[in-house]
Each structure stands twice: as C-alpha cells, then as structure tokens.
Specification:
Length: about 475
C-alpha cells in the first residue's frame, strides 16, 4: 500500500519524502492511542470532559461526539486550509482527527490503525489536492499562501494587546512603541533575523516585568496590612490561605499522580511529537507554519518558544484538573524538534536525537506539573497574563486572517473575489457565527474559489491574471 501511495505522490509532485510520510503516520497512531486511553488530547476545550470519561461518568461515543463538535471547525475551517496554504502539516489537522478516531475506537489497536490511516491521508493527500488545484482556472489553494504575510507580522503584536488589556492603555502603548522600535532596529541592524520574533520577545519580557512588579507591589501592601492586624486576624488570614491551598491539593493531587503513573507513555508521546517537529514538514503554530514552509527553523523555534508562555497556565491547569495531558505538552517540544532537525544534517541521527530530547522534555514537564500549579497560585498576575496572552493571540490572528483573506480574494478574483470572500465573512457574522471567526476567512476563500471556477466554466468570469 505504501509503495502504491508513494508512486501516486511521485506522479503528483509530492514534496514529502516517504520517510517523512511514514513518520507522520506513526505519530498520528501514537496520538490516537493516547486519546483512546484518555491520557492526552490536543483540544484544550475537550480536556475538562475527559475527567468524566476517566471517572466512567460518560461513555466513549458520547465523549467522542463532544470532542468532534469542539474540533470540527478547527479541522476543516482552519487546520486544512492552513496546511493547504503552506504545504506544512499542523496539529489541528493531525492531532484533532487522530484523537477523535482514538476516542471512537473500541480497542487500542483499532485506534492505532485508524491513526495510521489518518496520517497516510494527511501526508499523501495534501500535495494531491494542491496539484489538483494548480490545474484549475482559479488556483485558490496556491492563492492561500497570501495569508502568510499578515499572520507572520500581526501575530508578533499580541504582547502589546495583552499588556493593554491587563495593565492599561499607557503601558500597552509603551509596549507597542518598544515592539515597533525593536522591529525597525532589527530590520536595520540584523537584516537576516526575522524582526517580528525579536519584537515579540521584547513584548513578552515587558509583559512579564509588569506582572511581576504588580504582584510584588500587592505583596508589599499585604505585608503592611498584616502588620496592622491583631494576632487573631493574622491567624485567620493564614488559616484561609491554608484552606485554599488544601482545596487545590485535593483537586490536583490525584490527577497529578495519574499523570506521573503513565510517565512512560508520555515519554513516548514526547518523542513522537519531537520527531515530527524535526522532519521539516510540520509546524506547531499558525505563524510558524509559514516560517517552516520558508525553511526558517530558527525563527520558527523563537516564535513557538515565546508563544508557549501564553498556554502554560491553561494546559497545566486543565491537565491537573482532568488527569489528561496535552498532546503537545506545554509545546516546548516544538522548538526543540525544529532546532534538532535544522542543525543535525543527517535525518536519521536527527530523528534519534529528537526522540530522546522529546522524551526528556515531556518527562520533565509531567513531573513539574504539580509544582507548576502551586507556583502559579503564588503569582496571580502572571497566571492572569496567560489568559490575556491567549485572547490577544486570538485577536491578532483574527485580524491577520481577515486581512490575509481579503488579499487572497483580490489575487484570485479581483473585486468579485473580495465581494464573495468579504460577503461570506460578514454573512457568517450576521448569522450568529456558525463557522468560528478564525476559520471564517479561509472557509470563505475555499467556497469562493469553487464558485469562481464554476463561473469561469459557464463563461461568466475571467480569472485575474
């Protein structure tokens, strides 16, 4: 079967080597088995539902139905268009279907077989669709590449948005100004470095500095208030804190123990994700998909490293609350894989080193989860910053995807393309957003691309040169 698929891809000009495609299949099989055993899921929204499944309060089909409902928009509206536009696989396309198949499968080996199948479809089907689109009068798949420029640059501005929402407009404007200055200086002084990654790093550092300063100020104020209290009031204050800490330990303790119990499984998963990231055909984020497509692996590692800080509290908290970990862990395994694949020229050696490094990263993360949860309780502003970072990332990406979608619309259909894509986007908003906002633009491009080709075939539209 593999030889037949490889031959078909050879004929269609596939960009993935056979060893890369087989690696994808193995990783999706591992992901499906991990979901089948309720050890890990990629969808952060699905993780809380795993607690009831693990406890036997819901059935396997019911859980799979919920996860499918939460994931369908991201698979078909975001993961698939992103992969088609970049030629690089992503976790929304690989992990979300794999975990649904894993949850549906009644046995672990059926889950593994289904995961293998989905990996084959993803690896060999992507280029075939690209080649089919290239032969159409309106090549709307290739035009999706226009999405990359606004995503790459607007994504970097999320720290300024997060600072503005958490610490006020003045500090937000200051952060924005520093990020613009860092971008201009990098473009002028180090033109070979991706300037947006430096701007993003500067913004994240400022965000953390503001959060730490706020928490230190509140601790100082609390110390002053305690000094003015009576001994009984101080004892009551300490008792309240002890009760809150005990409640957290009671909630998180058993789930942290469950995760540590299955540490060898997580080591295998970490090895698989790191190996996948080292193949050069996979990226863990929206912006990094375009960077990996341009073979800018160091820049992709920088972007995903800083991006990870926005998701640590969410992933750690939901993992400790549910007993199921994230399919990509705290996502630090992505940059580790990119860098190993980039700096080790021998692919076989790179995969071995990536597997070892990925297993170590996941092992450390699982052991550190419990301590991480307690640490976040002591730094509330940093924990809250993560919520603002995630919201800011979504806002930046929504704006970038909308701008990019209109650029794609103009390039493939001129004014009519803009009317179709922009109109479908606005209609989706007016209808109560049946397609999630982040996926609405790419979905509108796909629908408009099909319509423009149909109009051309009946003589009502001439493709834009």
């Amino acid at each position: 079967m593999f030889a037949l698929l490889a031959a078909a891809n050879e004929a269609s000009g596939v960009h993935f080597a056979t060893w890369q495609s087989i690696t994808v299949m193995i990783v999706t099989a591992v992901a499906a088995v991990m979901a089948h055993k309720a050890l890990a899921v990629f969808n952060d929204g699905a993780r809380p539902f795993m607690l009831d499944f693990i406890g036997g309060k819901t059935t396997r089909p019911a859980t799979a139905t919920v996860v499918f409902g939460l994931s369908a928009g991201f698979i078909f509206g975001f993961g698939a268009p992103l992969a088609l536009s970049t030629g690089v696989l992503n976790p929304w396309l690989l992990f979300l279907p794999a975990e649904i198949l894993g949850l549906v499968a009644p046995t672990w080996w059926l889950a593994a077989a289904a995961g293998l199948g989905w990996g084959a479809i993803s690896a060999w089907g992507l280029s075939s669709i690209n080649n089919l689109s290239a032969n159409l009068p309106v090549d709307f798949i290739s035009a999706l590449g226009e999405l990359g420029t606004p995503i790459l640059w607007l994504f970097a501005i999320f720290p300024a948005l997060a600072v503005a929402r958490q610490f006020g407009r003045t500090k937000g404007l200051i952060t924005f100004g520093v990020q613009i200055a860092a971008t201009v200086a990098t473009m002028k002084l180090w033109p070979n470095i991706f300037a947006a990654s430096i701007a993003m790093a500067a913004g994240v550092v400022m965000l953390v500095a503001f959060a730490v300063t706020k928490d230190r100020s509140e601790r100082s104020a609390e110390a002053v208030a305690l000094a003015s209290m009576s001994d009984a009031e101080r004892a009551a204050h300490a008792g309240n804190k002890a009760v809150a800490a005990a409640a957290v330990d009671q909630l998180f303790g058993p789930n942290a123990a469950r995760l540590r119990k299955y540490l060898p499984w997580f080591a295998v998963l970490g090895a698989a994700v790191a190996v996948l990231s080292a193949t050069g055909i996979f990226a863990g984020g929206e912006a990094t998909s375009f960077l990996v497509a341009d073979r800018q692996f160091v820049e992709a590692a920088q972007v995903d490293f800083w991006r990870a800080f926005g998701f640590i509290p969410l992933i750690a908290t939901t993992a400790l609350a549910s007993g199921a970990y994230a399919m990509a862990g705290l996502t630090f395994v992505y940059p580790v894989g990119y860098l190993i694949g980039h700096f080790i020229g021998n692919p076989a050696l790179a995969l071995v080193v990536a597997a070892i490094a990925g297993a170590l990263v996941f092992s450390v993360e699982v052991f550190a989860l419990s301590g991480l949860g307690k640490w976040m309780q002591r730094w509330p502003s940093i924990r809250e910053s993560a919520d603002h970072i995630r919201n800011a990332i979504n806002e930046a990406l929504q704006a970038a995807i909308l701008v990019g979608s209109l650029m794609v619309a103009l390039s493939m259909g001129g004014g009519l393309g803009a009317l179709l894509v922009g109109g479908l986007y606005l209609l989706n908003e007016a209808l109560g957003r049946p397609v999630i906002r982040m996926a609405a633009g790419p979905a509108a491009i796909l629908v408009s691309g099909v319509l423009l080709n149909l109009l051309h075939w009946v003589g009502l539209f001439t493709p834009v040169a």
